[in-house]
Design goal:
53% helix, four-stranded mixed beta sheet, DNA binding, 8 strands, DNA-binding protein, two-stranded antiparallel sheet, globular, 3 domains, alpha+beta
């Protein structure tokens, strides 16, 4: 006879909400859910499957009431001026995965005598954003003149990742949890986060967001590293209210990408589609970032900015959708190093080949179970 167990109805509903299931998904994936919530006891195997499907630790399902899960880093996200509700399993697991990778890399860095990065914690929110932005551009070699080698702002995003990693910051860009393509991250929940550390600073960017938003988020999270503070962010370019550190990082990010002092001389005076495209090509950024800086430089009113931003966002999304055909399917060995951070992946593969890290730990940290995948990734990274 199968073993039946008792699960509190509120805990079942909490697990469904945590997994981000809507009513249709809940009915399809857990058809007995309503009966369980009404008092019928599920079997232990049914509860174990429900835990796997909702990505819930099994033990939590036997609590008398839903637990209050805390985001493990400072949560600076807001919707308006209100804090964001219950964190999803996908977001929490992504943070835990990155913390695990950072812990490993910190040990590797210390073992190999890597010096602390002096820019970590070198700024405060009392510093002028334009001044900090200038320091970041200088360190990255990302001045406007340096961007001429980039084909467009999408190319600039990929090259920017390499420039940031060259400073010693791990950059991970992914739209999924680990390597699970069925667990897609939602930009409306978070756009990125920073894990500050003197020798192993890490930034994560939600790859499900538009490329236009990703490049802004990347610099926004880098600004948090300059503050020396870990943070979970929404990094919304249109934000006018919210936490002081978030707004400061927004200002820094915008000025890194489009320096106001330069923009004032470049701008023709009318935010036409042609003018926005021209400025976007010059700075190798999205037209959305250009619009934000026009507003920040007081060359657009808030009302004009909101209207033009909405129109331009719709146009940019349409352009991206039209280009997406060439990117369908993707190449695992092309995208995976970006999800992992090339710097982190190279170090982990090299450490494994040297015998300092076991293959089981390497597979877990890389998010793979196959040795063939590990070897192919190593070849792609150029680690013999």
């Amino acid at each position: 006879m199968p073993t039946r167990v008792s699960v509190a109805p509120d805990v079942l509903r909490w697990a469904v909400q945590r997994a981000g299931w809507d009513d249709e998904t809940a009915h399809r994936r857990a058809p007995m859910l309503e009966e369980w919530a009404a008092g019928k006891e599920p079997t232990l195997k049914q509860v174990e499957k429900f835990a796997r499907d909702t990505h819930t630790p099994l033990g939590l399902l036997f609590l008398p009431e839903p637990p209050e899960e805390q985001v493990p880093i400072p949560d600076l996200r807001t919707i308006g001026n209100a804090a964001v509700a219950q964190p999803s399993a996908d977001m929490l697991d992504t943070i835990y995965i990155c913390q695990d990778r950072q812990d490993w890399y910190r040990g590797y860095a210390v073992e190999h005598g890597y010096a602390p990065r002096d820019f970590v914690g070198s700024a405060t929110t009392d510093d002028t954003p334009a001044l900090v932005a200038d320091r970041i551009r200088t360190l990255l070699n990302f001045d406007v003149a340096d961007r001429a080698v980039f084909r467009n702002w999408e190319d600039a995003l990929r090259r920017l990742i390499d420039l940031i990693e060259d400073t010693g910051v791990l950059v991970m860009v992914s739209g999924i949890v680990g390597s699970n393509t069925h667990r897609v991250l939602r930009p409306e929940e978070f756009r990125g986060f920073a894990l500050a550390d003197p020798v192993a600073p890490l930034i994560f960017v939600n790859g499900s967001d538009t490329k236009a938003a990703q490049i802004f988020t990347m610099i926004h999270e880098l600004a948090h590293i300059w503050l020396g503070e870990s943070a979970l962010s929404d990094a919304a370019m249109t934000a006018r209210h919210g936490r002081a550190a978030e707004l400061w990082c927004n200002e820094v990010a915008a000025d890194v990408l489009v320096p106001q002092a330069v923009l004032r001389d470049d701008y023709s005076g009318e935010p036409t589609e042609a003018e926005l495209d021209r400025l976007a090509r010059r700075y190798r950024v999205s037209t959305l970032v250009v619009l934000k800086q026009l507003f920040a430089a007081r060359m657009l009113s808030w009302g004009s900015f909101e209207q033009r931003y909405g129109e331009e966002l719709e146009r940019v999304i349409g352009l991206l959708a039209a280009r997406r055909g060439d990117a369908q399917g993707g190449n695992y060995y092309y995208t995976q190093p970006l999800r992992l951070s090339r710097q982190f992946a190279r170090a982990l593969v090299a450490s494994t080949f040297e015998g300092s890290t076991g293959y089981r730990d390497a597979y877990r940290l890389l998010g793979t179970k196959k040795h063939e995948t590990f070897r192919n990734l190593a070849d792609d990274l150029g680690v013999a």
